[in-house]
Amino acid sequence: MSVLIVGGGIGGLAAAVALRRAGINARVFERAPQIREVGAGVTVWSNAVIALRRLGLDEEVLSLGSEMLWINVLSPKGAPISSIDLEEISQACGAPSLALHRADLQRMLLDALDREQVHTAKECVGVKQEKGGVTLRFADGAEARGKIAIGADGVRSVVRESLFGSQELRSARYYCYRALTATPTVTKHEVVSVLLPGIQLGVFPEVRPGEAYWFLCRNKPVDAIVADAQYDHMAVLRSVSGELPTALGEMIVATDPERILIDEVLDRPPGRRWGRDRISLIGDAAHPMAPTFGQGACMAIEDAVVLAHSLRRARNPVAGLRDYENSRRRRTATIKRLSWRYGKVYQWERPALVKWRILLAASPLGSWNLRRMLRLALRFDPPELDGQEVS
Ligand SMILES: Cc1cc2nc3c(=O)[nH]c(=O)nc-3n(C[C@H](O)[C@H](O)[C@H](O)COP(=O)(O)OP(=O)(O)OC[C@H]3O[C@@H](n4cnc5c(N)ncnc54)[C@H](O)[C@@H]3O)c2cc1C
């Protein structure tokens, strides 16, 4: 069986590694001229480390990242509101949870493949199903033929559009800023979270030695007549930094603006169909989600293992794709819904709601609820992959 994968992000590369592990031949087609350093930090929670264990990469990923042991929620003045023992939860779920540089994760996956498996500067512009196979068409006029195709081409997936037509994305109405910067004066292994009206900040102190990763989500102005292109993001960050605990505000101001990535948070409500006949989707192409719990890339890694398992054991490739989709729909929809809802709660602005949120976060009920959600997300029981050749 030959599998064509469109997109060489975390989902596409993880799928190629998992398929290889299951003895299935796969090729990745990426539109960028090379698989390069992209993104800032990324959290790889226990569930994804467990999935990477099936790919023989768990030890390696642990060596690349910094383990997250505690989540400390702080007030805007820096006073502790609540503290979650993440080490205990992660261990109970079967593996540590980490924060690392996104490029290091991507490089690890790339290195687990043969160079000939990954084709760069190949922008897919069309997918065609024919009897017994699929053909990808690229912007440079070239074509590739295989038995099945997987769209791992992200939130604005061309493969998805070829299946279901163009579908609107849903805006969560907040921006997410993220960057790497010099480690501030917070303790290593502690994830710091600060909630202000309409703002959430997360800091992961050491994704590489001496380098911290932060993200900050900020509501769009309510009367946003301002076009996105005219929005002065840096002025927003400067003004927000004055409201944060001093060391964290200074960290944001000291970050090189060139290194700050800005995304509007988008998703798509869970869909009932991810594929048709010989085509399916993985990662953000299938189930884009708000970044609230840092699970989008983790879900793509889980997808990869299940996809390889389903194709490995199916009586034919089409049945394998449907089995994969059925196995993944419920879990990804749950995490996606929680990410959307809690993202909205963390962005609350109205004073009464904000006050209530702080009271809840500080209460045993609040920390019980957060621990419960973490356990739900971090538990994953991946199927076995065995590596004999599949014809
Ligand atoms: C602010 C923010 C913070 C996040 N933090 C985390 C986190 O900490 N942990 C976590 O698990 N998740 C996180 N996520 C989610 C995570 O980034 C995504 O879920 C993940 O990157 C999805 O991977 P993917 O491979 O499906 O898609 P992508 O990463 O989007 O990769 C798609 C690839 O396809 C290529 N491509 C696109 N179109 C074509 C085409 N036509 N032809 C060929 N190639 C194409 C692109 O160039 C790209 O390389 C975050 C997301 C955001 C927005």
CATH class: Alpha Beta
Q: Cα distance, first to last residue?
A: 6 Å
What ligands are attached or bound here? flavin-adenine dinucleotide
CATH architecture: 3-Layer(bba) Sandwich
Sum up the overall morphology in one term: globular
- Looking at this structure, what is the CATH superfamily? FAD/NAD(P)-binding domain
Give start-end ranges of low-pLDDT stretches.
none
Major sheet attributes: 7 strands, mixed
Q: Find the count of extended strands (DSSP E, 2+ residues).
A: 18
The succession of helices and strands, N to C, reads EHEEHHEEEHEHEEEEEHEEEEHHEEHHHH
Helix content bin = 25-40%
Strand order of the largest sheet: 6-5-14-15-16-13-17
Q: How much β-strand is present in the residues? A: 25-35%
Using brief descriptors, characterize the structure shown.
FAD/NAD(P)-binding domain; 37% helix; alpha/beta; 7-stranded mixed beta sheet; 26% strand; binds flavin-adenine dinucleotide; 391 residues
